[in-house]
Amino acid sequence: MVKRHRAPRPHNRAGVWYLIRRVPKEFKAFDKRGIVKITTDIAVADDPRAIRAREVVAKLNDGLEQYWRDLRDGRSNDARARFEAAQSRARALGFTYKTAEEVAAGPLNDILKRLDLLAQKKLLDDETEVAAVLGGVPRARFPLSGLLEEYERLQRSSLDRMSPDQRRIWRNTRKRAIANLISVIGDKEISEITRDDTIAYRRWWQDRIAYHGLDIGTANKEIGQISKMVKAVDMMYQLNLKPVFAQLRIEGGAKKSRAAFTAEFVQTRILAPGALDGLNDEARDLVLLVADTGLRLSEAAGLVAGTIHLDADIPYVSVKPIDRILKTDQSERDIPLVGCALDAMKRHPKGFPRYRDKASSLSALVNKYLGAHGMRPSKAHSLYSLRHTFEDRLTAVEAPEKVIASLMGHKWIRPKYGAGPSLAQKLEWLQRIAFSPPTNDALEVVVQETVLPSK
């Protein structure tokens, strides 16, 4: 605890009220400033009796004392930086970093080695080196409310490759998982989470599943995300945490199979003349594109001019990690354009800027439209169902599994050799299942304007 004999008073420094405090002895090892001076930004002339300044100084002082406690306990960013530096220096000197308590509890031989190295290198008077070797810096501490921020920092190389929307989704799912855990056990330091806490968290999920109809898969996903974040921080900072999140998975979850439209329903209802006229042109043509390519919504909306090849002998689109990451390594692929998809891409040779990195908005709009116009046979059917319809149609014509996997962007069950199915081979199967484009006069005019060379 910080000893306080009386409330700090404002100090007049060059006509401005300041908080001025000497760093307490117990914190001198963490804050080297000696004397701390923080301005209130209140001029003495405007507050000659320091009435307002006293209130500001009290708040500044509370913040300063919290900062010192966080430094001592390893909770602040500065404290974490000092701990990382101590870890790095200990490794450079040939030791694994241990706190003073861990060093003292270890074998005598290890203590003697550490002292001997400091003596040999004449470092016994160097506070930084002694702290690194003998554990003078406390381990970093992380409340659950700060876990995501730290995990983001550890994952920054992966996050830098994501699109803004991918980062938003990535962050929100983990933010929600942490908020749920905090609602059950409170904002604990991750080092203080017990097995009883995690069992209580699991029980909370079981109750929600039983009484509120939530999905087991959602529960297991959140539990897994929390566990992964804690493990990453534990490994980075050598916190030596107990595996309190182990074996929490809830059994009984069945993998949901998304509904697929029948090919007849797509052709006669969704692709009926005028059926999609109420959508804007980009949303309407993205529906047509997905219907005859099986692209994921984010893949279709993410196409740009450099991935659209209409002038090739076989027109095709390429799924590539441009300004975003792909769902899997196998997602990177080339897909020939036939039927509805070819028509749609001719109208949008540079892609779909309105929905680029906004697949969620596209899905919400189209699903609402399909539902309002009687084109969702059940609640399980959605725009994404067209991708499953695409796969079903390939299966129905007995396309080779390797061709199906290549078109869908799925992992092939056998080791990959060679370049895989060619565009021509893919085209052969896609031509067998291609839908007939809607015979909408307005669309046909646009196609003609796009295809005919300008005079």
Automatic annotation (TrEMBL):
It comes from Oricola thermophila. Pfam families: Phage_integrase. Gene3D superfamilies: Intergrase catalytic core. Keywords: DNA integration, DNA recombination, DNA-binding. Transmembrane segments: none annotated. The keyword Zinc-finger does not apply. Belongs to the 'phage' integrase family. GO terms for molecular function: DNA binding. It comes from the Bacteria. Residues 256-431 form the Tyr recombinase domain. GO terms for biological process: DNA integration; DNA recombination. InterPro entries: DNA_brk_join_enz, Integrase-like_cat_sf, Integrase_catalytic, Tyrosine_recombinase_XerCD. This is Tyrosine-type recombinase/integrase.
